[in-house]
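User: For a reading group we're discussing how well predicted structures match intuition. Take WalW protein. Before you show the prediction, I'll give you the sequence so everyone sees exactly what went in.
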Amino acid sequence: MDEVVKRDSLVMKNAVQDLTHPLMTVVIDTEEEFDWSAPFSRSARSVENIKHQHRMHQAVFKTFDIKPCYVLDQAVLEDDWSVEYFKTLHGLGEIDLGVHLHPWLTPPYEEEVSAYNSYQGNLSEDLEFKKIETITALFERRIGFSPKIFKAGRYGLGPNSIALLHRAGYEIDLSVVPNGTYQYQDGGTNYLRAPHQPFELQQMAFQPLTRHFTGWLSLIGPALGGLFDYPLAKKLKLIGLLSRLGISRVVLSPEGMPTSALYSLLAERVAKGDRFFSMAYHSSSLMKGGSPYAASEENIDHLCDCLSSVATYFKEDLGGEFISVTDFAVFAAKELPEE
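Assistant: Thanks. Here is the predicted 3D structure of WalW protein, as structure tokens, for the group to look at:
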């Protein structure tokens, strides 16, 4: 899939550049647990992992006064227990809620189930909008209000997605993952030139997931971005070589990332002037066997401990503050006029 957003074609709103302290949001891709190595299936809809979310909520989010954003997919919205759980937390003002579209799970079922079609942006414009309409109506019916926050499953925005989301009433998108591409994987979205700080495009406010380069050669990272996703580079172990030479690519997530790498990412990017950060993980990673990052209870312990440690470091060492997705969007809209 071609690039959806580019640095040279955006109306930017650099609302955080004058902040004296950094801000961070936390986003949870809230979905079914399934075998990530198996073909996509419409029958894999178990959401037992939702019953494991309270551990993180109590141990980390309440401790650090974090108001996370749970983006809910079709399987979660169909489950009565999950809906009541999230409605309760939202009613208490403790979380934000949005929509997460897994195209293979959301009707209408007009496309072949495949890796290529798992990116909503690879569907026809008509079918993509039908699926957006379906899950939006389901959210409204089950949760009780119209969603304004959206995150594409597999980060799969396409050439029609932004206009379709705006048409459906969405205002905030969380799908962008800068400094990388999914085009080599199975025809996914290319985000190599997407901004890594918040921006606006086609009347949609974007809050990108934080992914950037660290190390003394990090400045050349954007020029090498595609190499980190190129299959042959992985096969030849070039990524490890680049790390030893002084450049690594780090995503702000407790899944599969050493805590020390997240410290380095935050410290280096704050020093370079970044003031917005977004952390994310999958709800299924809090249940043993729920995702590749939760093969054991020890893995889950690490995930919770990592997020707690990063929160402590961000607040105490970097002077950062946590902010909700909705509150940041309101703040950004107030700070600077439209360009």
